[in-house]
Amino acid sequence: MAFLDYAPAPESTSILDLRDDYRLWIGGEWVDGGGTPFASISPSTEQRIAMFASADEGDVDAAVAAARTAFRTVWGPMSGRDRGKYLFRIARLLQERARELAVAETLDNGKPIKETRDADVPLVAQWFFHCAGWADKLDHVGLGAAPQPHGVSAQIIPWNFPLLMLAWKVAPALAAGNTVVLKPAETTPLTAMLFAEICEQAGLPAGVVNLLTGAGDTGAALVRHPDVDKVAFTGSTAVGREIAKAIAGTDKKLTLELGGKGANIVFDDAPLDQAIEGIVNGVFFNQGQVCCAGSRLLVQENVHDAVLERLKERMSTLRLGDPLDKNTDVGAINSAEQLERITRLVDRGEAEGGERWSPACEIPAQGYWFPPTVVTGVEASSTIAREEIFGPVLSVLTFRTPDEAIAKANNSPYGLSAGIWSDKGSRVLAVADKLRAGVVWTNTFNKFDPTSPFGGYKESGYGREGGIQGMQAYLKAGK
Amino acid sequence: MATTKTATRLDVPKTYKLFIGGAFPRSESGRVTEVRSPDGGFVANVAKASRKDARDAVRAARKAQPGWAGATAYNRGQVLYRVAEVLEGRKAQFVDELVRSEGLSAARAQQQVEDAVDLWVWHAGWTDKIAQIGGSANPVAGPYFNLSVPEPTGVVAIVAPQQQGLLGLTSVIAPALVTGNAVVVVPAASSPLAAISLGEVLATSDLPGGVVNVLTGDPAELAPWLAGHADVNALDLTGAGGLDWVELEVIAADTLKRVIRPEPGLAPETPQRILALTETKTVWHTKSRL
User: Fold this and answer.
1) I need a labelling partner for A288 at 20 to 30 A (CA). Which of A172, A296, B51, B214 fits?
2) How far is A386 from chain B (nearest CA, A)?
3) What residues does the Aldehyde dehydrogenase domain cover (chain B) (predicted)?
4) Which B residues, 12 through 71, put their C-beta within 8 Å of a C-beta on chain A?
């Protein structure tokens, strides 16, 4: 038994009180969906969690109509102060039910409980708390006096941070006075349903938030619905493109948070221990299923070997396995489909000359798993240096000068995130200036905060979430 | 006496060319459009830009953009103010061109030129203030120094308003320049003369070559190439209301360009128009615990 083989410490699921079937939540009511119900399974066990309704076009109509009515009659006319109070209530209820939400999220998504418990769910509550305070201060968001909400906001979120992405979309929309129709991802609908219960507990007026479960067709119908005023999407660049096309020529406002291929730049004077932690956190957090993951390591040539040696040593201590175990660092990949994509891309990387390495680790018999992997000898032109893998896979490239690092970092159609590791403040600031990325972390990585705008340059999408800029996305200048 | 003065002087008509990369080339296509005065008289042949010219212009803009964005805000403000100065000094020329090509009265043409000068002045004053309006210091919950600043989107392709040729052109170029974007603009088909003359003003106003590129020609022909160009970052369709602008927006979606729609559009002379052509960069820096 190696020294790190702690006894298992699984979190109990007894805190959950799940239903067997979840229906659509429209106008404050649970209603059947017109589509064929589907199951959500736990990616770590492949066990079914519950059945979920699938919304068809009629359901989308009903949800948008409910949101429109609520906007016109209740939420639009309500004072900002009262809207804020509802959001504060929701924030508190999220905090009270934090453990339950963390367990549900881990069960449904496959991410480690320590991440849902310590990152996702606290941020969710923080996001509502932050936006709640904006609701009665909208004159100060930089759009002049009395800015106006858009109206009905259609929101589509991905499976990598199901509840956090819900919070990023719903909280600012409601604070600004919009009503919401949200579709969670088909593989991770569970916590959205728990959120509906929290809205009920908060006494949120019917129709202010509506939740439609379903797959891509449901999302497409929602985006195209003529009575939607604002579309907010987080997900793949390919789908983002389709949405941008679908709303062309309409009055709809759009924000997109799309893919990324973040560069994590390590200079030779970097504090190496911290940098190694940052590299690990940057690409193995949430199994690398993070659009802003630092998936391209750019390491200065003279410290390449030292960094790789320490990195491999650190990776050997990562524990892969049951996401509900409190000691687990790397959980399950969200779906069989995603696992297949990761596997295919890494095989391609190897075929193109990359050298692949993973620590020895036991892969559970059930579920979808991919070991933490580093690929060295990667060229800037390699597929795995260009395409988003969305898995626990780090591609390593080298550079000699800051200019070369900047050129390689910017050599991507994406521009979401970047990291810089160096002890020299003047260099850090100069490099940060030249990176074409929406978020630059220096001597840290993967930090999020509701006061801090997040979003991409170039093909990583447009608009920002978080902070004053995130609020502006849900408002237009007053007349 | 070497020459003999005649009673009447034969005038010297101006050759209007494109403005690309700080130079004034003819269209590589060799095509021109004839401009006639409202009473039907021949005024000038204006170069009619082609797809190749548009590509050259985008290349010039891309090359020039980092330098312009890298200039200090104070410096960019100085240059934009210089544009106003030079334009003011050439007022008579622009009045004459607007009268000849747009058929305006002298008084209305003068008003438009003066409004355009004032709009350059207004924008000159924004360069060192827009980051304070559009940026933020973010009080994140942790030991970090966290700042968000607006940065230019990059290369912006613009279909300029079809009305009030000079003023409309200014109202779309100037806001893009404030933060450090480079521009490829298709001016109003009705005022190509003022557009190229504005290019001459820009060329002599310390604006680095390539920061603004003017492609006279058919907006309907040029706009799709610019909308689809992978090295263009944003598309301003303010003046494209008469075109199939929905198709242009669809083309732009392939490369996820930022698009300013013609309807309802973005008001000129607002910070929102300047900020619409920016990205927000957020930088997190750790603070040590003492």
Assistant:
1) A172
2) 16
3) 28-240
4) none
